[in-house]
Amino acid sequence: MRTVVGTVEDCIDMFEGSAQTRIIPLSPTNLIENPVTYKLVRVAGDGRLVPATDEEIVEVNETGYAYSIRCLSESCPRVSFSVVPTRRNFSSSGLLQSEYVEPYTQEVNTQPEDERLAMIHSLHMLSAPPDANIQLCNETDMFDEDHVHHEPLLQQPIPFSSNVQHGCNVDQSNTVEPTAPPADAQRPDFSLVRGEICLNNLPIKALQETFKATFGRATTVTDKTWLKRRITMGLTNSCNVPTTNLTVKDKKLVENQDKANDAPSSTDHADGHSNASGHSLTEDFSSEERAAKRVRKPTRRYIEELSENDEKQPVVTSKDEKLSEKSEVRSISVSLGKRVTVTRVVSLAGSEIEVPYVSLVRRSCPRENIMALMECHSSCLEAKASSGESNMLHNEVLKSASGPDQKESATSSSNNEEDVLTEVDEDMETENIDSSGNSSDDNNNIGLPTMQGGGLRRKHHRAWTLSEVTQLVEGVAKYGAGKWSEIKKLSFSSHSYRTPVDLKDKWRNLLRTNFAQSPSNIMGSLKKHGSMHIPMQILLQVRELAEKQALVPPNH
DNA sequence: CTTAGGG
DNA sequence: CCCTAAG
Question: CB of A219 within 8 A of CB of A212?
Answer without folding.
Answer: yes
